[in-house]
Amino acid sequence: MDVLIVGAGAVGRWFAGLLDGPVAFADADRETAVAAAGEFETGSVASLSADDSYDVVVIAVPMRVAETVIREQAPRANRAVVDLTGSMVEPLAAMAAVAEERERMSLHPLFAPEHAPGRVAKSVGAGGPVVDELSRALVEAGNTVVPVEPAVHDDAMRTVQGQVHAAILAFGLASEPVPDELATPVYEDLQALRERVTSGTPGVYADIQETFDGVEALQAAVDRLAEADRAEFEELYRDAR
Prior knowledge:
The protein has ten helices and eight strands. The protein is of the alpha/beta class. It has an eight-stranded mixed beta sheet with strand order 3-2-1-4-5-6-7-8, sandwiched between helices. The protein is elongated and about 65 Å long.
C-alpha cells in the first residue's frame, strides 16, 4: 500500500512512522518534504501539482487550509483518504464531496507528536479494509483509538483545546516572575502547563483559536469574576468545581 502524505510537518511524519510501505511526502515547502522523505527508508518526494495516484492520500496540513487541500489532493487517492488536520466536520464533508467512492477517515491525535503514543480521536466517513488496517497500526503503536462523531469531537475541542489553551496563555501573559521558594504547587502546575503549551508552534495554536475559539468564553468568565461582589464570587467559585 503506497501512501501520499500532504503536509510534511511533525504530524505527517508521525503518521508515516506507523506505515510499513512506501510513503511519499508533498509539501508547499519542498525542502520540508525532502527532509521528511529522508527520515524513511522507503520515503520519496511528490509534487503537489502532479496527478499521479496513490492507494492512500493523507492530509496533514494546517486547519485553515484543510478544505482547500482536501479538494485538490483527495482525488489522487485510489482507495482511501485520511485527514489529520485536527477538526472533523468540515474535512469529512470535503472528502465526501470529492472522494465519494473512497474510504474516508478523520483522525486527531490528542497529543503533540513528540509525546506519542496517546489517545487518537477517530471518525469514519466510509469504512473498509484500508481504514481497518490503519486503525490497527495506530493500536499496535501503543495508541488508544477513541471513536467519536464528528460534531461531538469539534464541540469538545472548543473546551479541550480552544478554552484550555486560551486560559494557559492568558496566565502566561498576566503572570509576573516570582522567587522559586515562594511558588505554590498550583502555581508550579500552571507554569509547567505554560511551558508545555508555549514550546509548540505559534501558528498551530493560532489555527486552533481560529477554529475552536476559546477566548470569547474565557473573556466572559473573567468579566463575571471581575464584576462579582463577595457573595457572587463565592457562588462562581462553587460553579467552577
